[in-house]
Amino acid sequence: EGSAQASSSSWKKVNYNNVYKDIADLLEDENYDDGSYGPVFVRLAWHASGTFDHKTRTGGSSGATIRFEPESAHGANAGLDAARQRLEPLKKKYSHISYGDLYTLAGVVAVQELGGPTITWRPGRRDKTAADCTPDGRLPDAAQGADHVREIFYRMGFNDQEIAALVGAHALGRCHTSRSGFDGPWNASPTAFTNFFYTELLNNTWVPKKWNGPFQYVDRESGQFMMLPADMAFKKDSKFRVYVEKYAADQDAFFEDFANAFAKLLELGVDFPEDAPFYKFKTLEEVLP
Ligand code: HEM
Ligand SMILES: Nc1cccc2nccn12
User: Fold this and answer.
1) CATH fit for domain 10-138+262-287, picks 1.10.3720.10, 1.20.120.340, 1.20.1640.10, 1.10.520.10
2) Catalytic residue among 11, 46, 121, 186
3) Alpha helices by DSSP H, 114-176
4) What ipTM score was computed for the predicted complex, to two decimals?
5) Which of 36, 215, 242, 261 lies at 20 to 30 Å from 274 by C-alpha?
6) C-alpha to C-alpha distance for 203 and 11, rounded to whole angstroms
7) CATH architecture of 146-255
8) pLDDT tens for residues 202-253?
9) Is the CB of residue 148 below 6 angstroms from any atom belonging to ligand 1?
């Protein structure tokens, strides 16, 4: 998956409103997971960006090195080839777009089209080569708790409030034993961007799942839904819990804080051209009511 090394002004040759619409048209597929590529697009955008180290200014969403081995083969990135392959035809169609811009924009489209807040986004990420891949271990380990989560996200430059807002994206999608090894749906509506991650985390009784896979939780009420050990850290840790309770009680507050933190995540490590415009895209529904 090589790409013509974008010149510093390639980004000006792309109509991002058209790219938004084409990505939105790719979302639905009744034969994929719960009927949408939205959740895995959000995970691709987050993993492409979450490698950033603010001390060394390495990693982050400029470069899109997640598309190359060894990074694409890191355990945390298992399954993301499904998202990259779904988006590949758009790289062909919009030859001047960078993978970095394409992958992050796909995350924006997914959040917005699944009912989430408007995410401000800028073009101008420039692709790098496989030589610039980041080392493994920069993304969080779901088997660990609050101290590890803080270590990973403080390294990116986030605070507790931003971390607690970001994890609300677990309202989307599911775990796959073939990818992370964890299993299962977490809720009956995994393709709706809501504050349900927080309400379910707080309102359900979560007990260890009895199975021979990795340690995870299941809700005692239905026995159907899951939470990761790292998810439970947001309920157990008193500083994170303050935000979990705030977002469970107020979806608008969650949307506002998520929009700010997700926009910041997707810009980690990028030196944007100073004339790159900020976009606030309309959803398909707003354009074609
Ligand atoms: C707090 C640390 C986090 C940990 C330990 C974590 C871990 C995981 C794991 C193990 C999965 C299941 C992967 C699979 O088997 O397919 C997953 C899925 C997902 N994660 Fe996270 N995650 C974290 C934070 C985030 C953040 C910050 C975002 C986005 C802002 C995010 C978005 C998602 C989405 C959308 C899915 C569903 C993907 C799908 O359905 O294919 N996660 N996460
Ligand atoms: N959707 C999803 C993915 C990964 C972890 C998780 N915990 C709760 C929900 N959830």
Assistant:
1) 1.10.520.10
2) 186
3) 146-156, 160-166
4) 0.99
5) 261
6) 46
7) Orthogonal Bundle (1.10)
8) 999 999 999 999 999 999 999 999 999 999 999 999 999 999 999 999 999 9
9) no
